[in-house]
Records
---
Amino acid sequence: MKERLGSVEDFADGKITIREVEGRSVGIFREGDAFSAMLNVCPHRAAPVCQGLLGGTMLPSKPGEYVYGLEGQVLRCPWLGWEFDVRSGESIGPVDKRNLTMYEIAVEDGDVFVDVKGRVTATA
Amino acid sequence: MTTEASDIRRVDCDIHPIFSGGLRDLVPYLTDDWLARFGMKGPVETDQFGGKREATVETPRALNIFPVTGAFRKDAIPPGGGLPASDPKFLGEHHLDAHGIDRGLLLGQNMLTVGSYPQSDHAAALASAYNDWIEERWLEADSRLRGTIVVATQDPEAAAAEVRRCAERSDRWVGVMLSLQNKAMGDSYYHPVYAEAERQGIPICVHISGVEGAFPQAPSLPAGPPATYFEVKTIYTTVYQANLVSMVARGTFERFPGLKVAMIECGIGWLPEVLWRMDTNWKALREETPWVKKLPSEYVYDHVRFTSQPFVEPPQAKQIRDFCEMIQVERILMFASDYPHYDFDDPTRTLAQIPKEARRAVEAGTALEFFGERLRNPGRVSVGVGA
């Protein structure tokens, strides 16, 4: 069941907006015209992951080297810092295979709709 | 509101209250002379690095080694801004109410490192002012909270006097927060504090400081200075293993039969190895320590308790059950969350991992027995704090 969350302008660009949808806390990420929706629960310890920071991360590198990348794509859990791709919900790096639970989200005529029954990526 | 012991279903043995305005929070509790000495009479100044400096003394911190995630839960920032756990009302709602916590032990974040000030008189003055601040700002604000008396062990006699001052003034103080020197807890150096804690019937609480190995007077870390926080976070538990063994070996619990020690956030995964190893070694080496009259592990079960956070995270869940059996979890473990730190343990999730028959003990029973009346009863807050 699709639920209308508001118009595109109701969502700040480059940020996650947290909304209650059918009793679930859901994070809506907007990047220009592109949207993603994720359950606001970290698969590690059930922390409110969408209250974490958005930024980049250190990419795997040689000993003694630092290579920073993925700026703006990485959602870091506010508790133990597990990292996820904010667009796909996929776990980043070798820490764990568990991903975020993602929902179908669509923009129709300037309105944003989410379907929390339609999981895009299930938690492994 | 009176709370009966049976109503206390959940105890959190590790909550960290935090200054909202740095050391200046202590201004009302310090004499003019100390304020002048600490450079806290004038405006907050900018230091040589461009940072704000509330005083000419700083809380000892190891700022070059710090979690990349930040030390605090980002979701614990009060809605009006400010630092996590700097507002008693928000802490009450966000943590105690939300998780059904009936009693919470405060371990003063900003004083975990008070043992590392080189000046014993500065440290003692700050510790006393801090205890007054805790009483007025936190213990009076929420009847579920209990304090641990901050003492500066640079001067053990002064530390003992501070224990007496607080414990006799209010029964909301349930323990002594012992900031360690680079001396084992089994050393006679700490005896004045132990004697007073035993006299008052309140446990000694020791908590990682985060400056282990960072200052000459702080407990040393093995293998020299660490290069990363990952190393510190993994190996600091060895400091507390050594402290535990020293107390058993040097007869601390024979000298102070009523002494109780809580090791808070000191790690638990090492317990099977250390307890078993002590027992094995004592059997062969007993003559070296003839005052050790029973199995070393029994001294630990009789006198020492540990807190659960950060809870063990083995690859397979069934290994947690084996571990709980190995350490006799129902005798020795007390729940702690470490709110508002980034490595917070959610009580519901942690307790669900404890075998059912031991869960109530870990959730509240062991802490209620260990900390006794002062934890159970509603408690009175003293009148005339700072007088």
---
Amino acid sequence: MTTGTLTPYRSDMRAGRDGFGQLLRAEWTKFRTVRGWVIGMMAAVLVTVALGLLASSGHAVCNGQACNLSVPTGPGGEAVTDSFYFVRQPLAGSGSITVRVASLSGGNTSHNPGGPATAGLQPWAKAGIIIKENTRPGSAYAAMVVTGSHGVRMQYNYTGDTAGLAGVVSRASPRWLRLTRSGDTITGYESANGSAWTKVGTVRLSGLSPVVQTGLFVSSPAYRQVTSQRLLGTGAVIGPTLATAVFDHLSLHGTQTGGAWHGSLIGGGASGAYPVQGGGYHRAGGRFTVSGSGDIAPAVAGAGDPGQTIEHSLAGAFAGLIVLVVVAAMFITAEYQRGLIRTTLAASPRRGRVLAAKAIVIGAVTFVAGLAAAAAAVLLGGRVLRGNGILVYPVTPLTEVRVVAGTAALLAIAAVLALAIGAILRRSAAAVAAVIVVIVLPYILAVPHVMPVAAAQWLLRITPAAGFAIQQSLPQYPQVSNAYTPSSGYYPLAPWAGFAVLCGYAALALGLDIFLLRRRDA
Amino acid sequence: MSQAPYANWVSMREALHAEWTKLRTAPGTLWLLVAVVALTAALSAAAAAAATCPSAGCGQDPAKISLTGIYLGQAVVAVLAVLAISGEYSTGMIRTTLAAMPRRTTVLAAKAAILTGLVLTAGTIAVLGSVLAGRLILPGHGFTSAHGYLPLSLGDGPVLRAAAGSVLYLALIALLSLGAATTVRDSAAAIGIVLGLLYLFPIIAAVVTDQHLQRHLQQIGPMSAGLAVQATTGLSSLPLSPWAGLGVLAAWAAAALLGGGLLLRLRDA
């Protein structure tokens, strides 16, 4: 009798897959089936938007009445200040303008009741020659200028700034400046004697009209002095200043020259955000004495400014962050508390992958929630601010996307950090407290003036709170005097550098965590 | 019948003994108390080392600077207080506790008393360390008699108020956290609520554009109001007086404990 060989039993169930996709799906299922966590995510979105709206409420007050301010935008779409006194005439096609600056002096204006007694010549008072698209504030330009204490500069389109000869201009040591236009290209030259010329820079102003305005200009930025640093906010005196420059040896070469010089005030006026005090010019033979106020520069936010940045409406992100940190820490500590971690690790023995899947799920969920919250807060908050007559500094669409998506990414990385610290400590209370303290406390110590500015800036460099730099929408410009402190919204690190610091902490914590998870019993 | 007060007294004494034993033998307590002292004193010393007073009338408050560490120490105190009750909920110990001690209010009162005692002790050491750091470091950074500053001394009335007030502040933070944790039971949620209450008010107050709203937020925020007790200069510009500020925090703590106590009585454990 022959029998077939006994075949071992084989289940006809298909073998389970243990790919990374499966792991992600498992973690996502764990997340979405805990009602409290899903509610927590929605609560985080709601508090972020609600507190953003609260921060944006309130009316602007200018001289006891509601004001309606506006700010021009430059060719790059950024907010600029563009007010100065201009002695000009049209220039058609290619040509050049040359002048000698014999002196530059200045101080605060006499009719400035709120201002300081003696402001003196502002370091960034400017006198020089300019080629400008038209007289509309915010239009494209290139200029060669002598400044109060930063030497000769070639400046263009508000943000561009190239240094030339250093030193202070005076009758004994005048400065010669020249701008030449050839098509879209403008080249700036300087000279100490009018015969030996040095090129300072060349810029291309694409799309420059055939007929532009050129001539002499003088500007002198508003005087700012921080008068008090209280627990909250900063008191400041801000007032207009006036600079006066003497020019001679003015010559203009081009296809159509010989027109008359017209003096006019550009920008300023009642709707300007920056105090400006008139100006004028006087001509005696070949000698022009021009006085001007204001500045041709990118806009900066600071003490005494009536405007708000777009990230002002994102203050609620701190509340959202605290809720998200709680949820993210519980996402792992709840497994330890309930013993589910042993099932999880039995089902997927490669522990590092479990943690990676958890980090991806919580990071992605937080990013989506954060994106919805930040977009809603910026859109609605900006609308409320503008509706109340508060100036919101315009920024380029790219910057706006960076601020909104960056806030969402900041929340996502903070959640991953909370997850990692939760897995290291295995205790939710300690993990939540640790993450909130390292991210929120440095901001509290830095922004409402608890610590001195220098110490506050160090805190915002080395702690995970550096990540908030990604919300800064107005850059810091060396060619604009301002108190660039955390309390006026300026972080010591560049946006992406600050964000990288936070990411570094999260990566470090995750790495330590994977190491510990492999070594420790669950 | 005449024994009832005696029985109450005995049960309170036993409850205190039980809570003391539980808290003393919990693994984290000692480390958290050490952390309160170390972190508070370290941040205070760092703040004192970072402060400068370049000229007379620099408008800074040396007592406040040398007590900066309280901003950090309070977070550790909150963790300690939250764990005192949430730890029992997470392990199920609370059911044993309440079976042995059915008077739930007594249990909470005993917990609050033991916790207050521990935090007052650690807080006193932390504050003394901070004031000592300020006394040693600040004169080297321009806080000299030439600039109108005497070395910090607890014999000075306002400085003593700031120091003693900071110790009381930490104790009230512990009670607020205990109340919040009794209310929500879960430790992560409780610590999130407490730190949110403490840290969010100053951030929101710093960004609101409405001056009146800003002042009100400073007056009702438990941290911004409570830390008014640290001020020794410029009292007239404060949103509320030092002791009134501590009173606001005490009201928060009382409300949290009352809410927690009520829920403890009403809910199943």
